[in-house]
Design brief:
A hairpin with a 2-residue loop joins strand 6 and strand 7. This protein has a 3-stranded antiparallel sheet with strand order 1-2-3. The protein is an alpha+beta fold. Helices cover about 45% and strands about 20% of the residues. Among the domains are: about 45 residues, Helicase, Ruva Protein, domain 3; about 100 residues, 2-Layer Sandwich (Tetrahydropterin Synthase, Chain A). Helix 3 packs across helix 6 and helix 5 packs antiparallel against helix 6. The protein starts with a helix and ends with a strand.
């Protein structure tokens, strides 16, 4: 049967798919719009599978803090290229997914794909459909949910890096300002743990062995290698654990000292740092 330009344009407006794809789908479906939509959705599934190995190094970060400030959520929705990340289709789907996660108080990324959005279809189905329309791999790159006495969020100006910081022992202190400073510190300095006792043991042993090898290469005596390596390990803790890092805004203080200056005993109980950029 002959498919008119008007019919093709109607399907395009309904689905957002390309003109040629719409014409082929309508032709295959003998002009049946519902069947054509199913064909386009199947195409989306094929596109999704074909691009499954592609890198997703662009996208957006969304954060949310509950009204009482005790719970924070963070979502990273990723795609392959920057132009796609700036489209309304991409941003609207990201917001719809995050709104559903907030409404259902989702705890982990594993729960998100099965959530139903306002159109009655699941997150996974919506992602497949949009993949078919834009021809790029789309993924929920990360999702975090933190609860504490107070949680502070931060999204970098490029929209591709987000941080959640959980505080304890606030003693009623307003931690909004220092919270932003600490979140920005995490964004910039990439700590691997809150404090040294949270660093994975395998990482500790690796750093000790590296320290020993460095000292050995410098010609240090064998009986001094362990001591030298432990000294290097302390430097590693200072550089890579949040509370022991020098405060970016004032290198005379550590983050631990900055927090103590706000309220005695105030500290960070956890943090999450997520980036979708290269």
């Amino acid at each position: 049967m002959v498919i008119t330009a008007t019919e093709v344009n109607k399907l395009r407006n309904m689905t957002g798919a390309g003109m040629m794809d719409c014409k082929k789908a309508l032709t295959e479906a003998n002009g049946d719009f519902e069947a054509a939509i199913d064909i386009l959705r199947k195409k989306g599934q094929k596109v999704s599978a074909a691009r499954s190995g592609n890198a997703t190094s662009e996208g957006i970060i969304l954060t949310n803090i509950s009204k009482d400030g005790s719970t924070g959520k963070l979502l990273a929705f990723a795609c392959e290229t920057e132009p796609v990340s700036k489209t309304d289709l991409f941003k609207d789907l990201a917001k719809s997914i995050f709104d559903a996660a907030i409404e259902k108080n989702v705890k982990s990324a594993d729960e998100i794909n099965a959530l139903k959005l306002k159109d009655g279809r699941t997150v996974e189905e919506n992602i497949v459909d949009l993949t078919g329309k834009i021809g790029e791999k789309l993924v929920i790159a990360a999702y975090e949910n933190i609860s504490a006495e107070k949680v502070v969020d931060y999204v970098h100006s490029n929209g591709k890096l987000g941080v959640l910081v959980a505080f304890k022992n606030t003693n009623g202190a307003n931690v909004s300002e220092v919270g932003k400073d600490v979140a920005m510190q995490i964004a910039a300095m990439k700590p691997i743990a809150v404090d040294k006792d949270e660093v994975d043991e395998s990482t500790v042993q690796r750093e000790i062995e590296i320290g020993k090898e460095q000292a050995r290469a410098e010609g240090k005596p064998e009986n001094m290698l362990e001591k030298i390596a432990l000294g290097k390990l302390n430097k590693f803790y200072k550089d890579n654990t949040l509370l022991n890092q020098e405060f970016v805004k004032d290198s005379s203080k550590t983050i631990r000292q900055v927090l103590e200056g706000v309220s005695k005993g105030l500290t960070v109980s956890a943090f999450k740092r997520i980036s979708v950029s290269k």
